[in-house]
Each structure stands twice: as C-alpha cells, then as structure tokens.
Specification:
The structure holds two protein chains of two kinds. By secondary structure, chain A is of the alpha/beta class. Chain A is built from eleven helices and 16 strands. At the A-B interface, helix 1, strand 2, helix 3 and helix 6 of A face helix 1, helix 2, helix 3, helix 6 and helix 10 of B.
Chain lengths: 375, 382
C-alpha cells in the first residue's frame, strides 16, 4: 500500500511539474462571461458529436451548420466541438459537462444516445441552454430538435426505384429503432412509387459510425443481388462498396458524391445552418426558449443533394414534382394504403399514419425483406 | 580504432535485481520523456504546448471536477484490470474481461429488475452478488475448457465477449426495453434503491470504495493466503507446482471464476453507479484497456489503483483537450505517446540497453568500449 501511495504522489507531482513548467503563460484564460439570462455580446456555442466531424455524413452535416454559425455571426460567437464521443453514458456526460462548466452558453448534442446525459447535465447547469438532436425529452433549458427526413428519404427512394434494374434494393441500417425503421420505410415507399415491385433487403450494424462494419454489410447486400444500395449510417463506406462493384448508391446526411461519383444517385441530406444560426441568435438577444422542433422539407432542414450523372432528366422532373406536392402539403409520405410486411393494412386508403404510429414505428412496410428483433 | 568491420549494435541486457533507485529513476525518466515527446509532437502539429498541458492537468487532477471525473473513469478499469491481473498471475490469458463485464452487468440488472423494491443496502448487495455470479459463469466456460480439456483460453474468452455483448443487446431490444425509449436499445431505468449512492456531495459514486476493497482483497489473497501462494507457484513454475501436489485443474477453474467475478462486479458498478439502467453501450472496451492497465501495473493489485487513475486522467484530460480545440486525432496521438513511453519505461526497469561493438565476421568486438555503466543516463527528477 505504501509503495502505491508513493507512486500516486509521484505521478501527481510529475504532472504538476509538467503543467507548471510549460503552462504558466496560459493561466487565467477564463473569458468574462456575462452570466446567464438576458442578452449577450458574445455567445459561446459548443457541439458534441458522436462521430468525427469529417465523417462525410451525419456529423459533417452538423459541423457544416456550426461553420455557418461562425460565418454568419462572426465575432459575436465563439464555437467549439468535441468529436468521436461514445454513446456510453459516462463518456457522453463528461463531454457535455466539460463544455457546461467552461461557461459555454448553448450546447448542441447531436446523437440520440446523448439524450439522458444531456438532460442530466441540463439539470445541473440551469444557466446553460441545451439542444438535443433526434430525441424527445425536453426541459426548461433543454430543447429537442429534429426534422422530417422521411420526406427526403421518400424522394431519394424514387431515384433508387428508377435506377434499379432488377428491382432489388439494399439498405445498411444502424439500429432497429423507430427513426431508422421509419426512414427505411419512407425510402421503400418512394422506390415503389416508381417501381411498384421493388423490394429491399436490410442489414443492421448496431452502430451509427463503423466504416468496416458498414463495408461488410454493404458487401453482403451486393452478394444478395441488390443493385442499388442506400444507408442509414453515418459514413460513405456503403457508397465506396457500391462504386467498386458498379452498383448504384443513395447516400445519407451529406453530399458525399466525391466518394463514389459513378455510383452516386443523390442523398437525402440535413441542412442545420438556419436552425443553428437562429438558436444561437436567440441566445444572443435573450429570446431563447425551450421547444420541440420538427423541421420539414418546406423549412429546408431536409432536402436532396445534387443528382449524379446517371439520374435522367425525366426522373429528376418526376422527383421535383413530388417534392412540390410535399411542400404544398398535397402529399403525405405515409399516405394510405400502407401495408406491413405481412400485408396487413396499417393505414387505409385516404388516411395517413398518425404521428404516434410514426414515432413508435416498429414494423417494416411491404417489400422490405428482413426481420426486426422480436419485441 | 578497432576492427574495420565492427559496428555498434544495441542489445537488451537483463538487469539483475534493479535497485529501488534505478526503478524510480527509470520510471521518472519515462514519464519525463513522454511529455517531452508529446511536446515535440504538438509543436510539429502546430499546437501551443502550454495551454494543452495545462488543460490536460486541469481536466484530470487539477480541479475538483477533474478529480471526480478521473476517479469515475478509473473505477471500471480497476475491476477489469484486477480480473486480468489475477488470471495472468497464473499465466491464464483471460482476454474476456469485456464479456464478463457485460455478463456481470446482466446479472446485476436481473436482480435489480426482479426485486426493485428491496431496501437499498440489501438490493445493492444482491446486485453485487448477481454481478459476480454473471461474470464468474461467463469465465467458467473457457476456464473449464482449459482445465479439463486443455483448450487454450485465449480464443474462447475473446469470442465469448461478442456473445455477451449481443446477449445484452438482445435483452435491451426485447424483454428489458424501456417503453419510453422509443425503441432505442435502452433498458428500463433502475429504481432508486438499485442505484449506488454518491460519496458525499461529490460526483463519485460508492463504486470507488468497492474498487479499493476489491484491490485490497485480491492483494491479501495473493500475499497472505495459501491459495495466493499456489496461484503464484503455478504461474511461475507449473511443474514444481504439480510436484508439490497442487491441483492445477481446480486452481485454473478457481482463478477463472475469481477473474470473471471481478470483471462482473465492474459491470454491476458501472450500470448501478453511472448508467442507472442496462443498455447496449456500457463499455467502450474496459475489458481490453484493463489488459494494458494490468500490464503497466505488473499484475500487482495495489499498483492497479494508481495506474487506473492515470488512465482515467488520460481519458478525462483528453476530453478537456478537445474542448480547447484540439482535434480528437491529436488527443489520441498524445495518449498513445504517453502510453508508449510508460510501457517502454517498464521494459527498461528490467532491462538495460547496451551498445556493443560487434564484429560482423562473427568474433566479439573489444569489450569495454561501449559505455555500459549508465546507458541512456536518466535525467534526475525536477
């Protein structure tokens, strides 16, 4: 016991020496914060990312939003981010609290698994405001925000339905959760709007960002005869596999055409810029309030990336027309009749799925080949 | 001045009984070298050294918040390292602490969900037992295979990790799924009684105490009991142990059970102390990091405590570094550099490098030419 105590103090002393020897000039870097509430001159805004900011997908989309905030608000904002934060609760809490205790005014946490850690930190720091993406819990100082990606997924599905030669699509999915199921269903329905006999195979990776797993999942889908691949995971690995095999690819989250230009059809993408600018401005002028925000195609928070070379003008026009219908509220992605895998009617003709059904969706639409974990 | 073909070549020479002063000097040198190398690396990457080191410090040991976070990060590592260390002492390569950790979390959660209304002390004790049982059962499979059939334990322990993780994954997707989680793989939150209390008004939970107790118990077992003596003898000389009449099979099974139980308590402490429910991502690889911690601590249960703390400091300090704008890649490089030097230091405690002039034709170069008194002279501590 004695020797280990000595070792502890030794380690501490060494680190102290190292810190003092080199760190004296940086002492007192506390920036004068104006305190909670009311308007501010400079807002410190932070983002907590689940993947690397250059993942070419989900996190890249959020980081582009952060950069837009910097560009638009200039010296009225200071931004920072932490990337590659695991959804393991202790690690997530550590990252979020790390910003809260350093006097950041607004903290965006951009993965579902950060929801409870965000709420926990929000309770401890009532003067800091939090924005959690893709969850459902809110508090006085914590918002939830997300968007109707199913609308863009439907449009992208139309591009896939037009591109497939054998009618067999394949999707690399992250988790069997309602969000992912809903988006996969929307994609399938979009493809069937163009090619009524289209089917889609599903593989789950159980991770948002795991390029090697995504790669082997994509390969297994190609082996099973899919000729158009898509994804609900964060990296462009699926596209690289499709590109190498001469198949087609619909990406997700960000424009990632550069990773496989020949395979690229399009991608349903997020554009968080306006939302982030608005929320940081709200902190600046003191008008920030907690809300549960769900943006749409009409708001521009979701959309389609530029089309690839192989997407014909005819297909583009057809998609644009559908897009207009959605924006004008003339078409609902989950407009009946909608059938589940067994052919059961989930929404009758003339009706649409309810919000509740959408948020708790745990079934695949007809045409999707794959099983969900029993529930 | 010697034969024309002679060249200087490095050789590792074992230090015979390195003195306390040597051991200390080498370790201080290693840490100092790690920081110098890290500083050089930061300079090359165009980052300021001062703010980086001061953030590393304030995020780990230099603030009350950092200290609490460091301890929290170290707790699970203590358990998995102890699990690895006790097995490695007997030359059992248990790579399965990760899976045993998950199975311990499973056992503890099963207890927490079965009797959520039991009074706290009783329920928590039952959960510790559930965790030990879960982890021990998971280690029993490869342990028995090794003891009775001679199947090497490395592959079974490793592969069973994936089975355990998928088993927990299955449960949180089905029977234990929280109806409020919108289908995300999260278990139902534990009752208040199933949650480990905080220590005073710190962020640290009572798992810290369990970790210290576990380390002390293992130290006592190894140093003061006949079983501990047998474990060491079997580890160091199996033939002698057999000659002395020790049952190798029974001890293999026993040590694997103990090893698994330790990792299992780690799983219990993590779900009860920090996660407060069972879910899919409860470990970012504690079982594997435990192997590094145990190795650095030279498989000594008491040394594991400070080494795990240093690891916790690297983890929490690393987060702090990102909040001051260092990319996560640089943080990883920094952590890797420090680890590398620490491991190299351990090597140099037991070996020294001699530069010998060796004639390439085969005959020995002249002895005494190479400095061998103090190779790689260590800078004295600051």
């Amino acid at each position: 016991m004695k020797s280990s105590l000595k070792l502890i103090s030794l380690g501490v002393a060494l680190m102290l020496a190292a810190a003092c020897g080199t760190g004296s000039e940086s002492a007192g870097e506390d920036s004068g914060s104006t305190g909670g509430g009311g308007s501010k001159d400079v807002v410190k805004a932070a983002w907590v990312y689940v993947g690397p900011r250059n993942d070419g997908g989900w996190t890249t989309a959020h980081d582009n939003g952060r950069l837009a905030v910097e560009k638009t608000l200039g010296d009225k904002v200071e931004t920072a981010y932490v990337e590659n934060v695991p959804e393991e609760p202790a690690a997530a809490t550590r990252a979020i609290e790390g910003f809260a205790r350093k006097g950041y005014d607004i903290i965006f946490t951009t993965s579902f698994g950060f929801m409870d850690p965000t709420l926990e930190v929000a309770k401890k720091y009532p003067d800091v405001v939090f924005e959690h993406c893709s969850g459902f819990k809110t508090a006085d100082n914590m918002s939830a925000y997300f968007g109707a990606m199913e609308e863009a997924k439907f449009l992208a599905g139309m591009a896939a339905g037009a591109a497939t030669k054998n009618g067999q699509l394949g999707v690399v999915n992250a988790f069997p959760i309602p969000e992912v199921i809903r988006l996969g269903n929307a994609f399938m329905l979009g493809a069937q709007a163009v090619n009524p006999d289209a089917t889609m195979k599903v593989v789950f990776t159980n991770s948002w960002y795991d390029p090697p797993k995504e790669k082997s999942a994509a390969e297994s889908l190609l082996d099973a005869n899919s000729d158009v691949l898509t994804q609900d995971v964060d990296s462009p690995a699926t596209g690289q596999v499709a590109g190498a095999a001469g198949a087609k690819w619909v990406g997700y989250n960000s424009d990632a055409s550069e990773f496989a230009p020949d395979a690229w059809l399009t991608a349903p993408v997020w554009d968080w810029s306006d939302y982030y600018i608005e929320r940081v401005e709200a902190v600046l002028d003191g008008s920030w309030e907690s809300h549960n925000y769900y943006g749409t195609l009409a708001d521009g928070i979701v959309g389609l990336a530029p089309y690839g070379k192989s997407v014909s003008q005819e297909t583009q026009d057809m998609i644009d027309a559908k897009r207009q219908e959605i924006v004008n509220d003339e078409f609902d992605v989950f407009q009946g009749p909608v059938y589940d895998q067994s052919g059961r009617v989930m929404a009758k003709k003339g009706e649409a799925l309810s919000l509740d059904q959408l948020l708790s969706m745990d079934w695949f639409v007809k045409g999707i080949e794959g099983k969900l974990p029993a529930s | 001045m010697s034969a024309t073909t002679a060249a200087l070549r490095p050789r590792l020479v074992k230090r015979l009984l390195p003195s306390r002063a040597t051991r200390l000097a080498v370790r201080i040198g290693a840490v100092a070298a790690a920081f110098v190398a890290a500083a050089l690396f930061l300079l090359l990457a165009g980052n300021p050294i001062g703010p980086v080191f001061s953030a590393l410090w304030s995020g780990s040991f230099g603030s009350a918040y950092g200290q609490a976070q460091t301890i929290l990060a170290a707790i699970p590592l203590v358990f998995t390292s102890l699990a690895v260390a006790i097995a490695f002492r007997m030359l059992l390569w248990n790579i399965g602490a990760e899976g045993q950790f998950y199975f311990g979390a499973f056992g503890a959660a099963a207890v927490a969900y079965a009797w959520p209304e039991w009074p706290g002390p009783l329920l928590l004790t039952a959960m510790v037992l559930g965790g030990m049982l879960g982890g021990a059962l998971w280690a029993l499979v490869p342990g028995a295979l090794r003891a009775y059939l001679g199947v090497n334990e490395i592959v079974p322990t490793l592969l069973l990790n994936y089975v355990a993780i998928l088993w927990v994954d299955y449960l949180v997707n089905t029977a234990w799924r929280d109806p409020e989680s919108l289908g995300f793989p999260l278990g139902v939150p534990f009752s208040a009684q199933a949650t480990l209390p905080q220590l005073g008004d710190t962020a640290v939970h009572a798992g810290a105490i369990i970790a210290v107790i576990a380390a002390l118990v293992i130290a006592v077992i190894l140093r003061k009991t006949i079983w501990g003596y047998k474990i060491k003898v079997i580890g160091e000389n199996r033939r002698a142990a057999r000659y002395a009449g020790f049952s190798i099979t029974r001890n293999i099974v026993g040590v694997m059970l103990l090893s698994g139980a330790l990792a299992g308590v780690g799983g219990m402490v993590e779900v009860s102390g920090t996660v407060h429910r069972i879910q899919a991502d409860i470990s970012p690889g504690f079982g594997y990091t435990g192997i590094i911690v145990a190795t650095l601590a030279r498989f000594s249960p008491l040394l594991i405590l400070p080494v795990a703390l240093l690891f916790g400091a690297l983890i929490t300090g690393g987060v702090e570094l990102q909040t001051i704008g260092l990319p996560s890649d640089i943080v990883l490089m920094l952590q890797g550099t420090i680890l590398f030097f620490a491991l190299a230091g351990e090597l140099l405690v037991h070996y020294r490098i001699e530069w010998r002039r060796q004639a390439q034709t085969g005959s020995e170069g002249e002895p005494g030419a190479a400095g061998r008194a103090h190779p790689g002279a260590m800078p004295s501590g600051t």
